[in-house]
Amino acid sequence: MTIEVKVPTLPESVADAVVVGWHKKAGDSIRRDEPLVDIETDKVVLEVPAPADGVLDEIIEQEGETVVADQLLAKMTAGAVADAAENKQTEKESDKNIEAEQPPSENIAIAPAAKKLIMENKLSAEKIKGSGRDGRILKEDVKNFLSSAGAKKPEAEKQQPVSLVENKSVATDSGERIEKRVPMTRLRARIAERLLDAQQNAAILTTFNEVNMQPVMDLRKKYQDKFEKEYGVKLGFMSLFVKASIEALKKFPAVNASIDGNDIVYHGYFDVGVAVSSPRGLVVPVIRNADQMSLAEIEKNILAYVEKAQNNNIALEDMLGGTFTLSNGGVFGSLLSTPILNPPQSGILGMHKIQPRAVVENGDIVARPMMYLALSYDHRIIDGKEAVQFLVTIKDCLEDPARMILGI
């Protein structure tokens, strides 16, 4: 029986996707729920499993093709796995010489197109860092490796100009001047689109303040071991910032609101987005009902999202919604920045590097671990006074953590 493999239903906010890699080729046998093909949306990479045991008869949409929900990807014959295995035995034996030439990668997941490039360039898969799901090596990873200092080109190749055109990627080498043209990933293109949309359709203004992090650092130092022993997770800065932001959002609900046409939508819940770096770019998973969580629960949610982001396992539902966002550029060394809104949200808090600075306390100059805070907000619904007081509230909560416990 012939079965059609189609693109799964995409969320309303996602119009289409791109085929990024097939796990099987025509004629291969496959088991039910075994990964068949990966498709990339502007937010995540989706893995399409085989709907039944059988043989992949025909691939309709090749790598790089744009597809929409319910579009035909491939055709397969159900219930013929055993037969296919017998029919392909001879073929497998004839391919042994070819397989022997492949770099040792028994335990490394490699996309078919990536494997071809690895073989053609006689590379070692162990040296290539995969950005696909569960560390899977994609074609783009191999190309990036080839263009880096880690990939040593044969002398014959070095002596001649290189012109590589494949899957709309072009690299040219004229003498010592090298250029490489690579199409944007769907995620990067979507990020660019949203950032431009935010700047063009919102009146973005940024206000700044600074916070003395000594009280928070003392709190962590005093209770870190007991906290970790009790909850199995470390007490980080981010959970305290989330809690402080929620206290400020309660006092200034306009910062937790959004604009919908000519209406202002005031959200009676606190779904806080936390910007997380991933191999594919910046993603913003959402901690839902963060106001109802303890510090330990917030830390566990953040840690889970960080791990999922690093493994490219962030799901679409993890990033949908959100009423306010926190972005910590300080972990990368940023001293000061003006974060851009994450539409349709009206506020985003930028955290920065903690750095010892001279401050005046009771007439004396002392050194304190200080952090600059930046609040970018939509001036259409948030007045400057509200924005400044919002940031001051966060500052007060962090410089006196007991305020968050007492709710004052």
Task: Describe what this molecule looks like in 3D.
The chain is α+β, with helices and mostly antiparallel strands. It has two domains: 2-94, OB fold (Dihydrolipoamide Acetyltransferase, E2P) (Beta Barrel); 188-406, 2-Layer Sandwich (Chloramphenicol Acetyltransferase), CATH 3.30.559. Helix content is 32%, strand content 28%. Strands 12, 15, 18, 19, 20, 21 and 22 form a seven-stranded mixed beta sheet that branches. It has a four-stranded antiparallel beta sheet with strand order 1-8-6-3. Strand 9 (163-166) and strand 10 (169-174) form a beta hairpin. Helix 9 packs across helix 10 (295-310) and helix 9 crosses helix 12 (384-399).
Helix content: 25-40%
CATH architectural name of the largest domain: 2-Layer Sandwich
Extract low-pLDDT stretches: 82-105, 149-168
What is the count of DSSP helices, taking H or I runs of 4+ residues?
13
Q: Give the integer mean of the pLDDT values.
A: 82
**Distance separating the two termini:** 67 Å
Would you tell me the structural class of the helices and strands?
alpha+beta
Number of strands: 22
Look up the CATH topology of the largest domain.
Chloramphenicol Acetyltransferase
How much of the residues is beta strand, in percent? 25-35%
CATH superfamily of the largest domain: Chloramphenicol acetyltransferase-like domain
Rg over C-alpha atoms, rounded to the nearest angstrom: 26 Å
Largest sheet: 7 strands, mixed
